[in-house]
Design a protein that fits this description.
With about 240 residues, the protein is of the alpha+beta class. The protein folds into 3 domains: about 55 residues, RNA-binding S4 domain (Structural Genomics Hypothetical 15.5 Kd Protein In mrcA-pckA Intergenic Region, Chain A, Roll), CATH 3.10.290; about 80 residues, Pseudouridine synthase I, catalytic domain, N-terminal subdomain (Alpha-Beta Plaits); about 80 residues, Alpha-Beta Plaits. The chain contains 6 helices and 17 strands. The strands form 4 sheets. Strands 7, 8, 9, 10, 13, 14, 15, 16 and 17 form a 9-stranded mixed sheet that branches. It has a 4-stranded antiparallel sheet with strand order 3-2-5-6, with no helix packed on it.
Length: about 240
C-alpha cells in the first residue's frame, strides 16, 4: 500500500505537493469514489482518476543513458528529431530528469518515477553535476581563479564545487576544463564561460551525484540498480 499522493506523483502526472492539492480540491477518484483525505493509501489494483484522467500504475523503471550529440532531452519533438526516449527500449512512458542541450553529450537519467524526478531536480537537494568542457582558447589564470571563487550569472552567484584544467593545447589555443557545480539553470555551464569571454566548443556531463558513465559508449544505456535508486532517494546529502 502506498499513499495516494505518492502514487499520483510516481505515475508522472504531477508533483506530490500538487497531488495533495488536487486531492483536497476533490479532483481525485479511487475506484469511482471521490477522495479528499490526505494519507489515503491505495494498492496497484486500484483505479485512480485525476481530473478525469485515468492513471496507469506502471512498474517503476530507471535508466542511465550516455546521450549522444544531436539528440533532444525530451519525450517528443515537434521537428521530428530523435529524443533520449527513442534510445531506450521500453514500453513504459519514461521521461528525462532535467535536460542536456542538443549539442551536449553525457549522463542523463530517465524514469517514470515522478517522485524521484521532483526530488532530484529540487534545488534544496544540491545535486552535484560534473562536466568536461572544451574551450575555444586557453583560460587565463586570472579567469580561472575568478571562477574558482565564484561569479555572478543573471543575478545569482555560481561557485564550482570543483574546478580543474585537464589539458591545454597552445598550437590550437584550446583547453579542456573539468567543472563540478550544484546548479540546475539552463545552459549554465555555457553561460559561466561566456561571462568570462570563452566559447564552449564541446560539453559532456560525466557525473550526476555519485553516478558516472562507466564504460557506456555514446548512445548506450543501462538500468539503475535497486541500490543506486535507494541511494538517489536518500534524505541526507553530504
Amino acid at each position: 500500500m502506498e499513499r495516494l499522493q505518492k502514487v499520483i506523483a510516481s505515475c508522472g502526472y504531477c508533483s506530490r505537493r500538487k497531488a495533495e492539492d488536487l486531492i483536497k480540491e476533490g479532483k481525485v477518484y479511487v475506484n469511482g469514489h471521490k477522495v479528499t483525505k490526505l494519507g489515503t493509501c491505495v494498492n496497484s489494483s486500484d483505479i485512480i482518476v485525476v481530473e478525469n484522467v485515468e492513471l496507469h500504475q506502471s512498474k517503476l523503471e530507471y535508466y542511465l543513458l550516455n546521450k549522444p550529440r544531436g539528440v533532444i532531452s525530451s519525450t517528443n519533438d515537434d521537428k521530428s528529431r530523435k529524443t533520449v526516449v527513442d534510445l531506450i527500449k521500453t514500453n513504459t512512458r519514461i521521461y528525462p530528469i532535467g535536460r542536456l542541450d542538443y549539442d551536449t553529450t553525457g549522463l542523463i537519467i530517465l524514469t517514470n518515477d515522478g517522485t524521484l524526478a521532483n526530488k532530484l531536480m529540487h534545488p534544496k537537494n544540491k545535486i552535484e553535476k560534473t562536466y568536461v568542457a572544451k574551450l575555444n582558447k586557453i583560460i587565463s589564470m586570472e579567469d580561472y581563479f575568478k571562477l574558482k571563487k565564484g561569479i555572478v550569472i543573471e543575478g545569482r552567484k555560481v561557485k564550482p564545487t570543483n574546478l580543474k584544467i585537464k589539458s591545454k593545447s597552445k598550437n590550437k589555443d584550446e583547453c579542456i576544463i573539468e567543472i563540478s557545480i550544484i546548479e540546475g539553470r539552463n545552459h549554465i555551464v555555457k553561460k559561466i564561460f561566456a561571462h568570462l569571454g570563452y566559447e564552449v566548443i564541446k560539453l559532456k556531463r560525466e557525473r550526476y551525484d555519485f553516478l558516472t558513465l562507466g564504460n557506456l559508449k555514446s548512445g548506450e544505456y543501462r538500468a539503475l540498480s535497486i541500490k543506486e535508486v535507494k541511494k538517489l532517494y536518500r534524505e541526507e546529502r553530504n
